[in-house]
UniProtKB/TrEMBL annotation:
Pathway(s) of this molecule: Carbohydrate degradation; glycolysis; D-glyceraldehyde 3-phosphate and glycerone phosphate from D-glucose: step 4/4
InterPro entries in the record: Aldolase_TIM (IPR013785), Class_II_FBP_aldolase (IPR050246), FBA_II (IPR000771)
UniProt xrefs under SUPFAM superfamilies: Aldolase
Function: Catalyzes the aldol condensation of dihydroxyacetone phosphate (DHAP or glycerone-phosphate) with glyceraldehyde 3-phosphate (G3P) to form fructose 1,6-bisphosphate (FBP) in gluconeogenesis and the reverse reaction in glycolysis.
Biological process, per Gene Ontology: glycolytic process
Protein name from the UniProt record: Fructose-bisphosphate aldolase
Organism per entry: Clathrospora elynae
Binding annotation for Zn(2+) 1: 84, 182, 216
């Protein structure tokens, strides 16, 4: 890993590897989400990675600065990560202008050779600014908000050669494809056999702490699935709907009749509670 040793994201994840627990990397779309996530981290004395999508940077430009302030003022370890950054010009703008700790340089919508080539160039540029880099090896099916949908492209499982190639590109965090998907699995989570835990364990053994492992596609995960992924080597756990859906449900049920201030308070409350619950599940509570 060549990003600066003082990098917040890497410090959080390296501590989690040593402590054998997982750290959630939680998406925020607005200030209510950010507030709930930070309050949960403080309440549970848990490390946390705050994630923003590139689309959110354009919709709510000040949110990145609010998140960066939260990172610097918190009494627990936090970091700011940009998830699924796919536009090369936008990546360069992000690392030049925003106080971020890490970026997912997601070139997975290109073929393998081009993915690797572009990732290597951008990783060097990020590292020059002390910013850690995550990349996706193989291809994870589906799409999320503001992300190129790969649903019409063949899912590609991460191979041992992929792992070696991305390590050679000097990335810090690897997001493997092991049967996980961007999007929903259904109310009971992944089907039996859908997630290849053995492949994840083999990747973890192969990387041998040279890079850290991120798990994407956690919507609808039961607690036991998340915990098994952590035992198999995943340390950065990307979460979106898993935490935020309870807040969406508050909006659906109460938007027409609840006063705005109360509606905001209730969203923050339920998202904070759900985040705290998952911090316990992932083992990060009390680790700050």
């Amino acid at each position: 890993m060549t990003a600066t040793k003082e990098n917040r994201t890497l410090a959080i994840l390296n501590a989690a590897v040593a402590g054998k627990y997982g750290v959630m990397a939680a998406i925020a779309y607005n200030i209510e989400h950010l507030t709930a996530l930070v309050r949960a981290a403080e309440a549970k004395r848990s490390p946390l990675i705050i994630q923003l999508f590139p689309s959110t940077l354009k919709q709510v430009p000040l949110l990145a600065h609010a998140a960066a302030h939260a990172v610097k003022s918190a009494t627990v370890p936090l970091s700011l990560h940009i998830d699924h950054a796919q536009n090369i010009d936008h990546i360069r703008e992000i690392i030049r202008t925003l106080p971020v700790d890490s970026v997912m340089v997601d070139m997975s919508h290109y073929d393998e050779a081009e993915n690797l080539e572009k990732t290597k160039v951008l990783t060097k540029e990020c590292h020059e600014r002390g910013i850690a880099v995550e990349a996706e090896s193989g291809r994870i099916e589906g799409g999320e908000d503001g992300i190129a949908d790969t649903g019409d492209l063949e899912a590609l499982f991460t191979s041992p050669e992929d792992v070696d190639n991305f390590i050679a590109a000097d990335i810090d965090i690897l997001a493997p494809s092991i049967g996980n998907v961007h999007g929903d699995y259904g109310p009971t989570g992944p089907k039996e056999g859908q997630l290849h835990y053995g492949r994840l364990e083999a990747i973890d053994k192969q990387v041998n702490k040279r890079v850290l492992i991120a798990l994407h596609g956690t919507n609808n995960f039961p607690a036991e699935v998340m915990q098994r992924c952590i035992r198999s080597g995943a340390v950065k756990l990307n979460v979106n709907k898993l935490l935020l859906e309870v807040g969406n449900e508050v909006l659906r049920k109460n938007a027409a009749g609840m006063p705005l201030v109360k509606l905001i308070d209730e969203q923050i409350r339920v998202i904070q509670e759900e985040t705290e619950r998952w911090m316990d599940i992932c083992g990060s509570s009390g680790k700050a």
